[in-house]
Amino acid sequence: QVRLVESGGGLVQAGGSLRLSCTASTRSFSSYSLGWFRQAPGREREFVARISYTPGLVYYADSVKGRFTISRDNDKNTVYLQMNSLKPEDTAVYYCAANARGSAWTSAAAWEFWGQGTQVTVSS
After folding, report:
1. Which of 3, 70, 105, 124 has its CA 20 to 30 A from that of 35?
2. Measured at the alpha carbon of residue 90, what is the angle toward residues 86 and 92, in degrees to the nearest 5?
3. pLDDT for 73-111, tens place per residue?
């Protein structure tokens, strides 16, 4: 079992920035693909970003492309999500995920391990 712990959420004004972190308790961290999802009230959990275990392969939802950056530090067992130019519609609980199975990794169902989530609120 892999335990994922997110941090870094909070309240920020529109146009501001936040950096989320997610630390994993596993010796296999470097072999896992990692992702970030978010879920707003009354909505389904949606894909935000993914980084493969192969360095440099990153993918983003169109809604965050150019504003968010996903990165990983395998020495620290940590994945990051740098969020810039935040908008009120970015308000959600953000979850990190590990080990996508199969090719449908934009779907939450494809991911094996999840963190507990961290709240991000962007005020207008």
Report:
1. 124
2. 135
3. 999 999 999 999 999 999 999 999 999 998 899 999 999
